[in-house]
Design brief:
The chain has 185 residues and is an all-alpha fold. The protein has one domain: Up-down Bundle (Glutathione S-transferase Yfyf (Class Pi), Chain A, domain 2). 69% of the residues lie in helices and 0% in strands. The protein has nine helices and no strands. Helix 1 packs parallel to helix 7 and helix 4 runs antiparallel to helix 5. The protein starts with a helix and ends in a 9-residue tail after the last helix.
Length: 185
């Protein structure tokens, strides 16, 4: 069971992970330091165009359903926005800066922590969310964003010792994604 403070901390951590710009980091082409696996870079070079084509086809196939068409149009607007900034140096630097700030908060929370885990004496959903997020970032070559924060490295190592994280986060990432030099088997 959680006390109200622990529950509030779990929710704050879930929000932090949710605000981490994972899609922009996955889809975006950083002009000076794109560490993503080559296969990901290649796939992402046309991903927005493919999504826009599929959405346009869905609009045509469902033209009689105004609500669905409106939802597809909203998604087209969102995907077009992503396409337009995927190679923008300023935007890519902003994404990394935002991620770095989120990681600095995680580091501070870990250093001030009084529990065995991030928000409570036991594992919580916040820890599992962070496991997924940190593995994703590491896969993309972005562990450098916390290379000067050893508390985060130690936390990730503890998370990676959990059998569920090993099989459902780490192993599934390695088996379902192109090889990454940053996340070896």
């Amino acid at each position: 069971m959680f006390n109200p403070v622990q529950l509030q901390n779990v929710q704050r951590q879930l929000n932090a992970v949710d605000l981490t710009p994972h899609p922009g980091l996955l889809y975006g082409f950083h002009p000076e330091d794109d560490r993503r696996p080559q296969a990901i870079k290649q796939a992402m070079s046309s991903v927005y165009e493919e999504k826009l084509e599929a959405l346009t086809s869905l609009i045509k196939a469902n033209e009689g359903d105004g609500e669905l068409v409106a939802a597809y149009q909203a998604k087209i607007a969102k995907e077009t926005g992503g396409r337009d900034v995927r190679c923008d140096p300023g935007f890519q630097n902003t994404l990394r800066a935002a991620t770095r700030n989120i990681l600095l908060e995680l580091d501070k929370d870990l250093r001030q922590n009084q529990y065995a885990w991030l928000c409570a004496p036991h594992l919580t959903l916040a820890d599992l969310f962070w496991a997924v997020s940190l593995v994703r970032l590491k896969y993309l070559g972005l562990a450098k964003l916390w290379s000067d924060l050893p508390t985060i490295d130690a936390y990730l190592e503890r998370l990676l010792e959990l059998p569920s994280v090993q099989s459902e986060v780490l192993a599934s990432t390695i088996s379902s994604m192109p090889r990454s030099d940053y996340l070896a088997a």
